[in-house]
Design a protein that fits this description.
Helices cover 38% and strands 17% of the residues. By secondary structure, the chain is of the alpha/beta class. It folds into two domains: 7-42 and 160-293, Rossmann fold (3-Layer(aba) Sandwich), CATH 3.40.50; 48-144, Rossmann fold (3-Layer(aba) Sandwich). The strands form two sheets. It has a six-stranded mixed sheet with strand order 1-2-10-7-8-9, sandwiched between helices. One of its GO terms (molecular function) is cysteine synthase activity. The modification N6-(pyridoxal phosphate)lysine is found at residue 48.
Length: 301
Amino acid sequence: MSEYQTIEDVIGHTPLVRLQRLPGADMAARGNVILGKLEGNNPAGSVKDRPAISMIRRAEERGDIKPGDTLIEATSGNTGIALAMAAAIKGYRMVLIMPEDLSIERAQTMKAFGAELILTPKAGGMEYARDLSEQMQREGKGVVLDQFANADNPRIHYETTGPEIWDDTAGRITHFVSAMGTTGTITGVSRFLKEKNRAIRIVGAQPAEGSRIPGIRKWPEAYLPKIYDPSGVDDLVLVSQADAEDMARRMAREEGLFAGISAAGACWVALQIARTVENATIVFVVCDRGDRYLSTGVFPA
């Protein structure tokens, strides 16, 4: 066995860092600590590296797929990039279906890993993209891993992300905050943390009415991810697009933390919590990096 690691080996084990300036003196006086888990440090740049490699690896173990097969997935960006990387590592043809209004950096990154893209109308959103992926699978054009219904998505967060947070806080975590998209992160981490300490509050960030925040969704009932376990989420907090985008800029300028908009939404929620509690250890997921959003205009040119 080689002494050197592969790309697959270095997924996970991401740093947990303390916010220093954003919390301000008042929150520090309350004894609160706010920590961001830097999932953008994964090799393809987001928290989705974990479920991407997990879904492919477990499907191989079950004999559902084999190298050379075609994989299909509807994605809003980060899962697509992670799957494109994982497919490149494992030797699969990857077809990704995504709404046409998502950032050009995401599309270019997917193509760099060798994935093929199918862009769907903006008006149809992710719901249309998901429907098309299922249609293509029925037509025999490939296998859909289905991040929204695949138990291997939250499973990897139960096995890795949750334990890392617990260990890195020495069990002191009191609140966990995550943006909610496919809900794999919040579902898997919650399951682990609640087994360790039922008192830990699990908080999901969802978009306020009329807000479009990449990576955060409030799904229609018919499209609610099947992996989602609402019993594991204690509170849902609505985040406006303006607040998330402003927080993304502040995180970069005041903390040197260049993060995406959904990560900033989770940070905004963590800061709201910190204003109402004392002696808390609040962990939020920094799910990706800000360079994935440069073309959106969120960050000044």
